[in-house]
Task: inverse folding
């Protein structure tokens, strides 16, 4: 029988958006974004019983994401056709 637990801290550095500013309803979109940090946890159990015939494996995972960053393209209609920003 094996019991395990794990912890991970992931990091994605801060970014600067060099694209043309985007106007939101409440003002312009920010040009800089804070770093993204992810904390991940896992715990589990692995076992073999009765001459290695039946096996039982259990696992649970959780991740907490701070300042999640996602890419998004917006289609803008121009005189020459739509472009993605």
Result:
């Amino acid at each position: 029988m094996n019991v395990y637990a794990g912890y991970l801290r992931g990091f994605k550095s801060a970014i600067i958006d060099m694209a043309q500013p985007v106007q939101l309803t409440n003002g312009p979109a920010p040009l800089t974004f804070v770093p993204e940090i992810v904390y991940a946890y896992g715990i589990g159990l692995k076992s073999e019983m009765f001459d290695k015939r039946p096996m039982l494996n259990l696992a649970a995972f959780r991740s907490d994401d701070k300042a999640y960053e996602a890419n998004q393209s917006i289609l803008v209609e121009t005189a020459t056709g739509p472009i993605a920003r």
Observations:
- The chain has one domain: 2-84.
- The first strand starts at residue 2 and ends at 12.
